[in-house]
Amino acid sequence: MEERQHDLVVIGAGPGGYVAAIRAAQLGLDTACIEKASALGGTCLRVGCIPSKALLEASHKYQEAVTGLKKYGVLVGEVSLDLARMMKHKDKTVTTLTRGVAGLFKKNGITGYKGLGRLAGPGVVEVDGDTPMRLKAKHILIATGSEVTSLPGIELDGDRIGTSTEALSYPEVPQHLVMIGAGVIGLELGSVWRRLGARVTVLEYQDRILPGMDAETAKLAQRMLKKQGLEFHLGARVTGARVEGDSCVVEAEGLEPIQCDLVLVAVGRKPNTEGLALEAVGLETDSRGRIAVDEHYATAVPGIYAIGDVIAGPMLAHKAEEEGIACVERIVTGYGHVNYDAIPSVVYTHPEIASVGKTEEELKEAGVAYNKGVFPFIANGRAKAVGETEGQAKILADATTDRVLGVHVIGAHAGDLIAEAAVAIEFGASSEDIARSSHAHPTLAEALKEAAFAVDDRAIHS
Ligand code: FAD
Ligand code: NAD
Which ligand has an atom closest to residue 47 CA? Predict the structure, then answer.
């Protein structure tokens, strides 16, 4: 087996791994990255963030053409769906971006290895690929991400009972799709297929959708999504699903068995450590399969680090990226830090749901006194002009210091608006700082400025 030496070997080329590799190369490390899949970019680029957003946008355009343009005085003739072309658009987007990562590797002088990366002792990784390799490195970064998971009693058949991966490529619009889980995937992909004409039933174990998100915002979201035709059953713990003849049957506590033609299991993802041979270096995973790290992403084994979905924390692409950068900067410069209070989270439904910082529930539980400012989109001039009046912006600020602790927005382009709030939290801004910063008129961002004024009961337009 050929043997090579690098300063850093990264295992996994998702947003955590490939970004870490690029930053390490920028900092002068001789860097290699091993990826087992045929394309770079990880879950995010291949079967996650990017293809789902391509389909969300395309399905939204379709739905607008069908029902939404009349109010603007735009009359279109008969609208029809070319699903194959929609999928082609999605696939092309994915290919362009995954090739883009390959281009970035080349530009930054990163050596890519195709194959399964396996720990073979301290400072040694073997690549199980077409050309087996033995790589020696002072530093090893595990960025192997996460993979789909299911529930006991439900066997994924990769066809009719599947996960987000299958739901990104259904060859035709199902008549009736049952989503198990009202988390991010359930709502995003449920929205896609609802817009394209499917009946969509969402079964959720908890008594609310989007567990963990701000409860008031999640409640508003549920109301809006219900209006769009998604059917919700809350408090419905799914206990089984099976294929029966031409259809599927889903069983949930408190409900009659539901017949449908496709089932999408979206009950979370599991850290991916399969094939890594953690035992070869004495590394163990916790009860949820995650690799334990300290605040600098160092594992219990010197020289081995881990970041992204394979460690604790929200499974988000930008969280993985921040960790990758902080980890390699710490290795090279001695500094590197991620502020987990300033990591935003966005659900790309229509309208979008975005948040950063603490929820009201978290503040109450921690006994932190806060003031709350809410501003409805219906009172925002731009929202009126563009016909996107659903939603609200909410700012939670410390009752004593006025420091912004949490921001929750549901409304058009909330995912872009939340960037301002993340910067505010990162800089330790007060709600007064946001209120006193000039926001261009007419923009949706003015809703945030007004919510900041509302913290102190001074909103101008409501
Ligand atoms: P991954 O992206 O999972 O990458 C890990 C890589 O490692 C993979 O390419 C895998 O093939 C490779 N690998 C694993 N083991 C080995 C091995 N032993 N050897 C070699 N290679 C290996 N997040 C967002 O922030 N925004 C979104 O809009 C969003 N949408 C999503 C939509 C869907 C449908 C899904 C499923 C996820 C979405 N996510 C989103 C989550 C996001 O994709 C993940 O949080 C992110 O990809 C994690 O990055 P990562 O680098 O840790 O791992
Ligand atoms: P999730 O954790 O967001 O939601 C899973 C849902 O399934 C929860 O609401 C849970 O209560 C429910 N559930 C669990 N067991 C159940 C049962 N037996 N019956 C009924 N409901 C049950 O997970 P997900 O939606 O699968 O997403 C996986 C990961 O991917 C998430 O961590 C998410 O952060 C990430 N993701 C992010 C985005 C984004 O940022 N826009 C988009 C998609 C996915």
Answer: 1
Atom of ligand 1 nearest to the CA of 53: 28
Task: Quote the CA–CA distance of 117 and 143 in Å, as a whole number.
Answer: 11
Question: Within 10 A of 123 (CB to CB), how many other CB atoms are there?
Answer: 19
Residue type, 223: R
Residue 11 and residue 276: Cα distance in Å, rounded?
A: 9
For the chain, which residues score pLDDT lower than 50? none
Q: What's the pLDDT score for residue 299?
A: 97
Mutate-to-test residue for ligand 2 from 269, 270, 345, highest number of ligand atoms within 8 A of CB: 269
Q: What is the pLDDT of residue 194?
A: 98
Q: What are phi and psi of 95, to 5 degrees?
A: -60, -45
Cβ of 376 less than 6 Å from ligand 2: no
Q: In one letter, which amino acid is 65? A: A
Q: Encoding tokens for residue 419? A: 């960037």
Residue 354's nearest CA partner among 362, 366, 364, 343 is: 343
At residue 429, φ and ψ (nearest 5 deg) are: -70, 155
**Rounded mean pLDDT of the chain?**
97
Please count the other Cβ atoms lying within 10 Å of the Cβ belonging to residue 336: 20
Distance CA 10, CA 140 (A): 6
CB neighbour burial string for 411-428, b if at least 16 within 10 angstroms, e if fewer: bbbbbebbebbbebbeee
| Residues annotated as catalytic (active site), given as ranges | 441
- The whole model's pTM is what? 0.97
CA distance 174 to 440: 44
Is the CB of 165 within 6 Å of ligand 2? no
Please name the residue ranges forming H helices in 34-176.
42-47, 49-63, 83-107, 164-167
Please give the pLDDT value at position 114.
Answer: 97
Pocket probe for ligand 1: among 43, 56, 98, the residue whose CB has the most ligand atoms within 8 Å is 43
The ligand 1 site (C-beta within 6 Å) comprises: 11-17, 34-37, 42-44, 48-49, 52, 116-117, 143-146, 164, 185, 272, 275-276, 308-309, 315-318, 320, 348
The 10 Å Cβ neighbour count of residue 63 is: 19
Nearest to 394 by CA among 340, 447, 461: 447
Hey, what are 182's tokens? 């009202």
For CA atoms 322, 323, 326, 327, the dihedral sign is negative
